[in-house]
Each structure stands twice: as C-alpha cells, then as structure tokens.
Amino acid sequence: MIIAATDTTSTALTWFTWLVSKHPIVENKIIEELESKIPVSETKRRRLFNVDEVKNLVYLHGALYEALRLYPPVPFNHKEPLKPDMLPSGHPVHPKTKVLFSVYSMGRMKSIWGEDCYEFKPERWINERGEIKHEPSYKFLSFGSGPRKCLGKETSFIQIKAVASALIYNYRIHVMEETPIIPAVSVVLHTKHGLMTRISKRWE
C-alpha cells in the first residue's frame, strides 16, 4: 500500500491546526517557544522559520506528535507473515493471513497511553529535563515500525514543523463551529467536511 506523502502531511497539519485552535494554552506556548528563536533585535512581524530554527523545538515537537497520536494520517495498517509465526498473545498466524490493526485505536488505549489518553497533551512527549521524550516505534506507529519504518520520517517532520511554525506564529486561526470536525472513513484520515476557518493576521 503506497500513500502519497503530500496527503499524509496535509492531513497531519489539518488535525494539528484544529487541535491547537481548541487549546489556546498550547497555542501560546508554541508562540513563546518560537519567539525564543527570534533574535532580540528583530521586531515582531510576519516571518518564516528556517530548518535550524525549528528542528530542535521541543514543545512544538510534542504538540505535533500528540496530533499524530490522536489522528494518525494512516489510521490502520496490516501485516502478513511470510512463514508461520506466533503473536505475543499466543495466537498462531499462518502465511497469507492478514493481521489488521488500528493505529487510530491504539493511540486512544488507556493500557498504552494511560488514563489521559484522550487528552491533547504535548507535555506527554517532554521528559523531566525538558527534552523530547522518545517512545518505542511499536507504541507510536504513525511513522511505521521496524524494517517498514517511514524512510522520509525526519525530512517530512521537519517540513511539517516549518509549515506549522509559519501558520501558528503568523496567523490566528478560528475554526467555524457550523461545520462538524469528524474523521472520514478512508485510507488517509481526512476531516470528513474539511476544516472551515476564519483566519486573521497576528502581525502586520
């Protein structure tokens, strides 16, 4: 199964934008972190952030990973063994048997993420030292795991960080309540009715 990277990237940014718009405290923390990368001599104005400025942003990283956990662009996946195998549960799996698993559901399981698994909580990805907290790829499957792990993960995530930075720093995004935001049943987890917003400039 091949999924176009542009589809998954735009989907990830759509859900991230919606989640941040519903959590003003998170939005303010992202802006504060971005401002910390701007030279003191520079006046507040619209700007783009380069790779060096965004690649080590911890809180933005956490917010994006939370969006990917709750709304993975590819919501389900399947595997098929080449030879007889055994699942950790003890169930045998034979060749040509497809094992379908829901990445979307796994991101919302209390047994995996705790009692607050339904919360949008960027701090989940930050350790006590204020650094990015790494989770095993078999726990956080938005980029795949093992030999099938996404080869373009680092490049695509830097791209997402750069676009997300420009969106949040330069614009106020108000999501229109008239249109419900619900996932579409699809290979890629689009919003069923799009994301209708009203956008205004944050800086002149």
UniProtKB/TrEMBL annotation:
<dbReference type="GO" id="GO:0004497">
    <property type="term" value="F:monooxygenase activity"/>
</dbReference>
<protein>
    <recommendedName>
        <fullName>Cytochrome P450</fullName>
    </recommendedName>
</protein>
<dbReference type="InterPro" id="IPR002401">
    <property type="entry name" value="Cyt_P450_E_grp-I"/>
</dbReference>
<keyword id="KW-0503">Monooxygenase</keyword>
<keyword id="KW-0479">Metal-binding</keyword>
<dbReference type="InterPro" id="IPR036396">
    <property type="entry name" value="Cyt_P450_sf"/>
</dbReference>
<dbReference type="InterPro" id="IPR001128">
    <property type="entry name" value="Cyt_P450"/>
</dbReference>
<keyword id="KW-0349">Heme</keyword>
<dbReference type="GO" id="GO:0005506">
    <property type="term" value="F:iron ion binding"/>
</dbReference>
<dbReference type="Pfam" id="PF00067">
    <property type="entry name" value="p450"/>
</dbReference>
<dbReference type="GO" id="GO:0016705">
    <property type="term" value="F:oxidoreductase activity, acting on paired donors, with incorporation or reduction of molecular oxygen"/>
</dbReference>
<dbReference type="GO" id="GO:0006629">
    <property type="term" value="P:lipid metabolic process"/>
</dbReference>
<keyword id="KW-0408">Iron</keyword>
<dbReference type="GO" id="GO:0020037">
    <property type="term" value="F:heme binding"/>
</dbReference>
<dbReference type="InterPro" id="IPR017972">
    <property type="entry name" value="Cyt_P450_CS"/>
</dbReference>
<keyword id="KW-0560">Oxidoreductase</keyword>
<comment type="similarity">
    <text>Belongs to the cytochrome P450 family.</text>
</comment>
<feature type="binding site" description="axial binding residue">
    <location>
        <position position="150"/>
    </location>
    <ligand>
        <name>heme</name>
    </ligand>
</feature>
